[in-house]
């Protein structure tokens, strides 16, 4: 799970930080988002004013945090980083907002998990650059308006659909981040291999890219595991054979499915006859939170054409049966 989980943990974070592109022109893939963002930033710079608030949505590990850092770097302003779960009380947010400097970028990761009171404070801050500080309790409480410096909010979410409309509407630009294709992930891998001094021929990069679930974070992580394998069991060169053997060892299959992906498909096929089955029932069967199944496993399975979300529940496609080595029933969806 740790190996292929798109969420970073521990000292993996330090390496991840070292591998982050620093400027927009170093950022690989996401051509449309890059072009849109570049326009937003250039016009803000030309006008000498902070750009509109920016929302980025997409699966974990696609580069949302990286882009937030790049936005601040391109604007030449400081960056403040926080996350939705850290903003439990509106006061936590007020403390940050009231100390922002002019033009600063405030990055709120997992913004869909911000508490209701903090969200309401955000509306006012985003629109009027103002917060109401509530002093006292009960009937004697009063709200003292406080001006804050104009800033740019950059929000990231894995689930744009969960954002309340009033919050979503206050972003002037929404960047939808997609999974990366194999060629783009090869570029990510070659760049990382250079930075980490890994000997990575093209066929090795291709093999890792194919199995990286369309996600740069996973590509970088798999590269490090394959490098370990190459150093211990081979001559250090990450050839296609070495990459394939290492990834088999780490239970990343030929299409890049990891253990969670396969557990979901396994339960769907073996326990529920291919579905339809509801998300929470499916999550219980694999021993995970529904949100983990929905955010981490499903988007990739859907994109690979292995799983379909229907109004009646989750359904395995014919390709899913085949991928798991089974014969699809005649009524399996295409
Ligand atoms: P998110 O915030 O969406 O979960 P991150 O921005 O933390 O993802 O990116 C995860 C890792 O993937 C980082 O180490 C980053 O270097 C790498 N990465 C993400 N996007 C790109 C990209 N477009 N080009 C190169 N590396 C990338």
UniProtKB/TrEMBL annotation:
ATP binds at residues 19-20, 61, 64-66, 127-129, 170, 180, 217. It holds the Pfam family AAA_lid_4. Its EC number is 3.6.4.-. Mg(2+) binds at residue 65. It is found in: Cytoplasm. DNA binds at residues 309, 314. It is an enzyme of class 3 (hydrolase). It comes from the Bacteria. Residues 254-334 are annotated as: Head domain (RuvB-H). GO terms for biological process: DNA recombination; DNA repair. Keywords: ATP-binding, Cytoplasm, DNA damage, DNA recombination, DNA repair, DNA-binding, Helicase, Hydrolase, Nucleotide-binding. Residues 50-181 form the AAA+ ATPase domain. It catalyses: ATP + H2O = ADP + phosphate + H(+). Residues 181-251 are annotated as: Small ATPAse domain (RuvB-S). InterPro entries: AAA+_ATPase, AAA_lid_4, DNA_helicase_Holl-junc_RuvB, P-loop_NTPase, RuvB-like_N, RuvB_wg_C, WH-like_DNA-bd_sf, WH_DNA-bd_sf. GO terms for cellular component: cytoplasm; Holliday junction resolvase complex. GO terms for molecular function: ATP binding; ATP hydrolysis activity; four-way junction DNA binding; four-way junction helicase activity. Belongs to the RuvB family. Homohexamer. Forms an RuvA(8)-RuvB(12)-Holliday junction (HJ) complex. HJ DNA is sandwiched between 2 RuvA tetramers; dsDNA enters through RuvA and exits via RuvB. An RuvB hexamer assembles on each DNA strand where it exits the tetramer. Each RuvB hexamer is contacted by two RuvA subunits (via domain III) on 2 adjacent RuvB subunits; this complex drives branch migration. In the full resolvosome a probable DNA-RuvA(4)-RuvB(12)-RuvC(2) complex forms which resolves the HJ. The RuvA-RuvB-RuvC complex processes Holliday junction (HJ) DNA during genetic recombination and DNA repair, while the RuvA-RuvB complex plays an important role in the rescue of blocked DNA replication forks via replication fork reversal (RFR). RuvA specifically binds to HJ cruciform DNA, conferring on it an open structure. The RuvB hexamer acts as an ATP-dependent pump, pulling dsDNA into and through the RuvAB complex. RuvB forms 2 homohexamers on either side of HJ DNA bound by 1 or 2 RuvA tetramers; 4 subunits per hexamer contact DNA at a time. Has 3 domains, the large (RuvB-L) and small ATPase (RuvB-S) domains and the C-terminal head (RuvB-H) domain. The head domain binds DNA, while the ATPase domains jointly bind ATP, ADP or are empty depending on the state of the subunit in the translocation cycle. During a single DNA translocation step the structure of each domain remains the same, but their relative positions change. This is Holliday junction branch migration complex subunit RuvB. The lineage of its organism: Bacteria, Bacillati, Actinomycetota, Actinomycetes, Streptosporangiales.
């Amino acid at each position: 799970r740790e190996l292929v989980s798109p969420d970073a943990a521990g000292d993996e974070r330090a390496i991840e930080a070292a591998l982050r592109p620093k400027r927009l022109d170093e950022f690989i893939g996401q051509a449309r988002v890059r072009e849109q963002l570049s326009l937003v930033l250039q016009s803000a710079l030309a006008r000498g004013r902070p750009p509109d608030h920016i929302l980025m949505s997409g699966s974990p590990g696609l580069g949302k945090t990286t882009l937030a850092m790049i936005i601040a770097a391109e604007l030449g302003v400081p960056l403040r980083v926080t996350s939705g779960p850290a903003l439990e009380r509106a006061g936590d947010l007020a403390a940050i907002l009231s100390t922002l400097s002019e033009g600063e970028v405030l990055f709120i990761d997992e913004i869909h998990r911000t508490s209701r009171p903090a969200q309401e404070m955000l509306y006012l801050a985003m629109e009027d650059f103002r917060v109401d500080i509530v002093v006292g309790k009960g009937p004697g409480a009063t709200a003292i308006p406080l001006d804050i410096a104009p800033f740019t909010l950059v929000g990231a979410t894995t689930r744009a659909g969960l954002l309340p409309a009033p919050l979503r509407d206050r972003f002037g630009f929404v960047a939808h981040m997609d999974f990366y294709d194999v060629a783009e992930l090869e570029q990510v891998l070659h760049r990382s291999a250079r930075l980490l001094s890994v000997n990575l021929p093209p066929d090795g990069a291709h093999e890792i890219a194919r199995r990286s679930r369309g996600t740069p974070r996973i590509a970088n992580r798999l590269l490090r595991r394959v490098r370990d394998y190459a150093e211990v069991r081979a001559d250090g060169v990450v050839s296609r054979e070495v990459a394939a053997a290492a990834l088999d060892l780490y239970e990343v299959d030929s299409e890049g499915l990891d253990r969670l992906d396969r557990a979901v498909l396994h339960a769907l096929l073996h326990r529920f006859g291919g579905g339809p089955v509801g998300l929470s029932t499916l999550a219980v069967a694999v021993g995970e939170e529904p949100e983990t199944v929905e955010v981490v496993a499903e988007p990739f399975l859907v994109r690979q054409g292995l799983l379909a979300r229907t109004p009646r529940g989750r359904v395995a496609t014919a390709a899913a049966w085949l991928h798991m080595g089974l014969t699809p029933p005649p009524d399996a969806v295409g």
